[in-house]
Specification:
Mean pLDDT: 92
Shape: globular
Number of helices: 10
Number of domains: 1
Distance between the termini: 58 Å
CATH topology: Rossmann fold
CATH architecture: 3-Layer(aba) Sandwich
Structural class: alpha/beta
Strand order of the largest sheet: 2-3-6-4-7-8-9-10-11
Strand content: 15-25%
Largest sheet: 9 strands, mixed
Oligomer: single chain
């Protein structure tokens, strides 16, 4: 009996620790001082947005002459736009302006972070972009953790295109692969339902995912494709892992095709050898 009580106590302690400290497991931010100066090889503008609740969102904005539109890039759960800004070149070279924000608690963005606040911040910046670009010239791009955020914003608006790079079926589904032994449905503070957001998303949806991704399994993209076969196009990069898709030339071929050519609706999976 004593052993059972000890084990139960340990289990409850694990559950409580997860509930209160899950932010430390899910997010690995790089915090920058307000005086930090970004350096990129392309001209850019640094912007700060003061939110109604007192939070502040820091963003970078790259522009090219006679742009075809703008890519709003929702990044992953690590570091800051200091390093993530390097991906601007992939879109500037395709004739698109590029906009990226840091979530609260990342980089030079300030304020407490929650799922609702992340969604609201991203929506606020989307509406800011929509004042300068017709929605049919806005491309939402979500990478890894940011894929769910991008899907949520796409479901609220009418962008030209939604690109999901290594997305999860739902945040619960992905976390449950590792923490199946605790009651996540009552403990998980981030219930990001990419699967549900895509149901009401009106624009074409293109998923790029490596078949050897161990962090977010390729199977999750297959499940999303299976839910909405007429809406979603899945671009499978054979052998690609979670953090090395830019090492594959076909990754850039896909981007070129999506950004320059009118995206098709989903009807099949495209495998890139």
């Amino acid at each position: 009996m004593t052993v059972l009580l000890i084990l139960l106590g340990l289990y409850l302690a694990i559950c409580l620790a997860f509930y209160f400290f899950q932010h430390f497991g899910f997010f690995r931010p790089e915090i920058l001082s307000n005086a930090f100066q970004y350096k990129y090889p392309f001209p850019f503008e640094e912007l700060d947005f003061d939110m109604e609740d007192g939070g502040r969102i820091n963003a970078i904005y790259f522009k090219v002459p006679n742009s075809l539109g703008v890519v709003f890039y929702l990044k992953g759960n690590s570091k800051s736009i200091k390093g993530w800004g390097k991906f601007a070149k992939d879109f500037l070279s395709n004739g698109y302006d590029f906009f990226m924000m840091d979530y609260r608690g990342f980089g030079k963005s300030r304020g407490t972070r929650s799922q609702t606040k992340v969604f609201n911040d991203a929506q606020y910046l989307y509406k800011w972009l929509a004042q300068m670009y017709p929605e049919q010239k806005i491309v939402l791009y979500g990478r890894s953790w940011g894929s769910g955020v991008a899907a949520r914003i796409a479901s609220w608006n009418k962008p030209r295109l939604l690109i999901l790079d290594s997305p999860y079926f739902s945040f619960f589904y992905n976390v449950n692969r590792y923490l199946f032994f605790i009651p996540l449905r009552w403990l998980l503070r981030y219930d990001i339902r990419t699967d549900q957001y895509l149901k009401v998303t009106e624009c074409p949806v293109h998923i790029i995912h490596g078949t050897k991704d161990r962090l977010i399994s390729f199977h999750q993209s297959e499940k999303l494709k299976g839910l909405y076969p007429e809406k979603v196009v899945l671009h499978a990069i054979e052998g690609g892992r979670h953090n090395n898709l830019p090492d594959f030339p076909e990754f850039f071929e896909i981007l070129y095709h999506l950004l320059y050519i009118k995206p098709e609706d989903g009807n099949h999976t495209k495998t890139r050898p």
